[in-house]
């Protein structure tokens, strides 16, 4: 077959144009895949409840498509219970212009909020957002803070204690006098306790060095001990468990991590769920939701958790109706 010169010339021109246009056209990248959001996590102390809330937060972000190393960068800082360190972390995150700061624990939330009134702050494990000075009202927050509260249902805790230890009259509570969230819980307990024919014997400490002496003084005067959501006290659970188990007296905790560390039981909230819910809220802010329209929310659902090993050691029988709806854990960690 003979091809005319004019046709060859036309084919050549078309080929050159195709190559030229192909070089002009570049692949289009979706903007969402190139944007990196910077998230700072400020945690007040290291213990199981706060650690699991941090894990829940990251999983909550993941569930909405925000994954570390892909479209978000996460920096985690722990102040190890030191307020001055917490303040430096807050200042660092401000200087680095984080898109969102996640504050775990009341002291972390306070230091972060005191450092910035513009960067969106998501909080968790904060007991009373109003008493902390961060907002004036739960109903009308209207600032740069939202998240979840770990305010525990004190009435449910005392009801559970009374069902398991019907003869209990005096309940001890040890708390850190520097933690506002603990003082809120003590007040609530003292208000509610008479309804269950209970007297609350509270003992405050300033640091862990005072704990052993306080435990020795209180263990012989109470029928049981209650551990609030207190960062300092929670980190000392091995010592508390040792002192009370040696006297065959039970400990009741505010949440599951306390039970895994030696408390007999709790009817409390899940810190993983708190963190997860906070992570979802952070994702909503990254997606464009105005944080000033959001609130600090409380979890309504609680879960009974029983430590089988502690029951056996203290020779305590748990009523069947409680066991049937409880999560059972076995070892003291």
Secondary-structure blueprint of this entry?
Blueprint lengths: L4 H20 L6 H4 L2 E7 L4 H16 L8 E7 L4 H13 L4 E5 L1 H10 L5 E6 L18 E5 L4 H11 L5 E7 L3 H13 L6 E7 L5 H8 L5 E4 L3 H4 L2 H9 L5 E3 L2 H5 L4 E4 L2 H16 L9 E3 L4 E5 H7 L5 H4 L3 E3 L4
Parallel strand pairs: 1-2, 1-3, 3-4, 4-5, 5-11, 6-7, 6-8, 8-9, 12-13
Antiparallel strand pairs: 10-12
Helix pairs in contact: 3-12, 4-5, 8-10
Main sheet makeup: 6 strands, parallel
Helix content: 40-55%
Distance between the termini: 87 Å
Radius of gyration: 27 Å
Task: Report strand order across the widest sheet.
Answer: 2-1-3-4-5-11
Q: Compute the number of strand runs.
A: 13
Oligomer: single chain
InterPro entries: ABC_transpt-TYRBP-like, Peripla_BP_I
Protein name: Extracellular substrate-binding protein
Organism: Clostridium putrefaciens
Keywords: Membrane, Transmembrane, Transmembrane helix
For the structure shown, list the relevant keywords.
14 helices, alpha/beta, 6-stranded parallel sheet, 42% helix, 4-stranded parallel sheet, single chain, Rossmann fold, 333 residues
């Amino acid at each position: 077959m003979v091809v005319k010169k004019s046709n060859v010339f036309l084919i050549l021109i078309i080929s050159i144009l195709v190559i030229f246009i192909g070089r002009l056209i570049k692949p289009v990248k979706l903007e969402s895949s190139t944007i990196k959001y910077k998230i700072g996590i400020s945690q007040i102390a290291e213990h199981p409840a706060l650690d699991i809330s941090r894990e829940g937060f990251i999983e909550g972000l993941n569930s909405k498509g925000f994954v570390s190393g892909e479209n978000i960068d996460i920096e985690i800082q722990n102040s190890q219970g030191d307020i001055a360190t917490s303040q430096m972390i807050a200042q660092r995150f401000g200087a680095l212009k984080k898109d969102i700061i996640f504050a775990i624990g009341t002291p972390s939330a306070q230091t972060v909020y005191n450092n910035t009134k513009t960067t969106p702050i998501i909080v968790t494990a904060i007991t009373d957002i109003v008493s902390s000075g961060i907002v004036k009202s739960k109903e009308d927050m209207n600032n740069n803070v939202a998240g979840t509260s770990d305010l525990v249902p004190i009435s449910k805790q005392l009801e559970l204690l009374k069902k398991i230890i019907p003869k209990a009259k005096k309940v001890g509570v040890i708390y850190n006098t520097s933690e506002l969230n603990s003082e809120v819980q003590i007040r609530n307990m003292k208000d509610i306790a008479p309804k269950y024919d209970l007297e609350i014997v509270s003992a405050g400490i300033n640091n862990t060095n005072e704990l052993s002496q306080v435990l020795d003084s209180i263990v012989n005067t109470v029928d049981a001990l209650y551990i609030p959501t207190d960062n300092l006290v929670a980190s000392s659970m091995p010592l508390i468990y040792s002192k009370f188990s040696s006297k065959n007296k039970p400990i009741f905790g505010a949440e599951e991590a306390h039970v895994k560390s030696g408390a007999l039981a709790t009817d409390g909230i899940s810190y993983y769920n708190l963190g997860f819910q906070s992570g979802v809220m952070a994702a909503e802010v990254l997606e464009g939701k105005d944080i000033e329209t959001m609130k600090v929310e409380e979890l309504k659902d609680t879960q009974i958790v029983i430590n089988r090993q502690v029951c056996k050691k203290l020779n305590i029988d748990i009523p069947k109706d409680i066991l049937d709806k409880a999560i059972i854990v076995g070892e003291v960690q």
